[in-house]
Amino acid sequence: MKGNFIDNLPKVYGIYTGGFLGFIIIMAIAEQMGMTAKTIGICFVAFTVAIYAIIGWLSRTAQADAYYVAGRQVPTVFNGMATAADWMSGASFVAMAGGIYFKGYGYMALLVGWTGGYVLVATLLAPYLRKFGCYTVPDFIGTRYGGNLTRFLAVVVLTVASFTYVTAQINATGTIASVALDIPFQYAVYVGLVSILLCSMLGGMRGVTWTQVAQYIVLIIAYLLPVFWISNKIGAGFFPHFMLADEVARIGELEQQFGFVKNSAADLANVPKGLAGITKAHSAVNASPWAFISLALAMMMGTASLPHVMMRYFTTPSVKAARKSVGWSLFFIFLLYSSAPMLATLSKLSLMDPSLPTGIIGKSIADVQAIDWYQNWNAANLMFVSDFNGNGTLELNEFFMGGKAVVLATPEIAGLPYVISGLVAAGGMAAAMSTADGLILAIANAISHDVYYKIIDPKAETAKRLVVARVLLVVIGFAGATIAAMEIQGILGSVIWAFDFAMSGLFFPLVLGVWWKRANREGAIAGMALGLISGMGYLIWVRNGGSGFLGITQLTFGIFGSAVSLVSMVVVSLITSEPNAATQRMVDEVRVPSGRSIIGKQ
Amino acid sequence: MSKQAQHWEKTRSLLFVTLAIWFVFSIGIFLFGAEMNEVGGPFGYPLTYWFTCQGSLGIFVILIFWFANRQEKIDEEFGFSERGDN
Q1: Inter-chain contact A594–B53, Cβ cutoff 8 Å?
Q2: How near does any CA of chain B get to the CA of A98, in Å?
């Protein structure tokens, strides 16, 4: 399979997709023949994880080039799929539709931010870093600015940002594994971790690339199939994206009719932690322009600074391919992101509309409590009703749901067969695993390549470097899993922080490294260190009751961090001497797509 | 002006144009989110709502492909395009 593998990719993944669809059909038939829901769940998760493990094993390698950058031969479209899987985390998959469902417009800034950031990636960074020929993001910083301190600081920022992110992903794999395999969360986290390491340990970036493509295929099928099915089933339209205008308007009417009644604190105290009611308008603008724009801006700049995304563009065969590949990445992301609001709409309408058979608002509380799916999801701590006003009827403000339930429970509420729920579990697992793999690899590669090889032991042989890289992979994975097992924060909070950390420390050092020749080492050191410290300081201050300023919240603290980073980097660069002639020539070279890369084979 | 400087000049203008379009659809229009939402948008969705669900996202996809093609033309014009790849 080697040699010709790249040419055969469409065929290989075509067969794979067909095989997966066949598997879904077999499961559907098995369900009709009486296979239990639990067995179906186990089959879905075990089957897909086994496939990823096989791909991981087939991609094993002993070459540095293959381990770090997949041999730089990943075609544009496939790299786009891999990036999309790398990018779309367990949170995008499981929590995004829920966020839209509960928070509406204010939350949708994330949709704009997490896609708009790719324009920055394509124009400002990806092609230039590809030309540079680096293995890791700190490799670029260290070579462009010179000196071990710059390299080390870049590794620090990368580690802080990526580690914040990875614990959330391992947590998500653990949650799904614990539900699907019915084992306690503390053990499920490690089952998730082993699955993650199976993909990346032997093949490094090569293994991760080909498993991520496979994971993308699973996750996109798992997301789109229920959305289309539900839309057709409730008669909302066969292509929901273009046909839900009436449903969106109907939700607006129902909101008017039911009204948003504010619950008293005493009543809310009875609601289980993590569940929320519908308190915000679905399609109306419910956030101030700055609240929306600042969140979108932070996510866009964070996107362009997150190393696990950037390093995917190091694997394309050329600079030209890197640019196109960003476009494909965003296209594949768009397929899921544009469907999330549709799912939120369908989910909300099926619960709210009394004229639909699934509608529960306005029914008697006793009737709702007798519904099968209500009992299941109530037992899973994701749904709750309570008759606050004592009238025996369920009001809009008396129904509570967890954010995850929008994706996980809607298929069941709409009466889809259980096979779809099993598929959704496999999709969520794929989304969380692929992102966790990218992140753990980004951290382990940065430490093994930049700290160990470039700073500590530049004479190390390839075999030894790859052993170090793999040991680090396992250590970092276990550290992440251990923290995830403690269940400190919700999935989404820590995901957003990762973007803010990354943009605080890395956005301007990366961008100015290409676009401003005058940027020098001292400036970069100041930009990274002060950016990260001030961003982190702001977060700690706001978390401890600080009032903040300019409407910058704990979700957008990167705006403050990156502003400090920009100012300090420019000021320090200008008061110190300009970079030497060799560095300036290097920047000129980076700006031209043709010719050799700056760093050759390492 | 050297060939390389001219190439960079054109590359930079393309960057500014691309970022200007990006700015309009990621930030600019949301300054008027409340007003725009009163207007009907494509497929009958409220306009701002449509932009957040599909519009801005789709425009970014098209924008990146457009940018990549323009940049390739610039590279070809100055003989800086790479050979032997796709």
Answers
A1: no
A2: 14
ipTM given for this complex: 0.94
Binary contact (B54, A593; C-beta < 8 A): no
Using CB atoms, pick whichever of B34, B43, B58 lies closest to residue A242.
B43
Residues of A in contact with B56 (CB under 8 A): 112, 115-116
Q: Which residues of A touch B11 (CB under 8 A)?
A: 591
Residue that has been written with the tokens 């050329």 in this structure:
A318
- Is there a contact between B52 and A317 if contact means CB atoms under 8 Å apart? no
* DSSP SS3 for A383: strand
Homologous superfamily of domain range A9-251+281-346+417-590? Sodium/glucose cotransporter (1.20.1730.10)
Select the residue of A245, A296, A317 nearest B43 (Cβ to Cβ): A245
DSSP assignment string, A113-129: HHHHHHHHIIIIIHHHH
- The runs of H, that is alpha helices, within A33-75 are 37-58, 64-69
Contact A190, A171 (CB under 8 A): no
Evaluate whether A283 touches A248 at the Cβ level (below 8 Å). Answer: yes
Lowest mean pLDDT among A44-58, A498-512, A588-602, B38-52: A588-602
Answer whether A597 touches B (CB < 8 Å). Answer: no
Q: How many helices (H) and strands (E) does chain B have?
A: 4, 0
pLDDT digits 0-9 by tens, A40-77: 888 888 889 888 988 888 888 888 888 888 888 888 99
> What's the pLDDT tens digit per position in A545-587?
878 888 888 889 999 999 999 999 999 999 998 888 888 888 8
CA distance A593 to A337: 32
> The sheet that has A275-276: what strands, in order across it?
A275-276, A399-402, A383-385
Q: Please compute the mean of the pLDDT values over residues A258-286 and round it to a whole number.
A: 81
Q: Which of A172, A170, A197 is nearest to A49 (CA)?
A: A197
pTM, to two decimals: 0.93
Q: DSSP letters along A176-213, please? A: HHHHHHT--HHHHHHHHHHHHHHHHTTTHHHHHHHHHH
Residue A195 has pLDDT above 60, yes or no: yes
What are the extents of the domains in chain B? 24-77
B10 contacts in A (CB within 8 Å)?
Answer: none
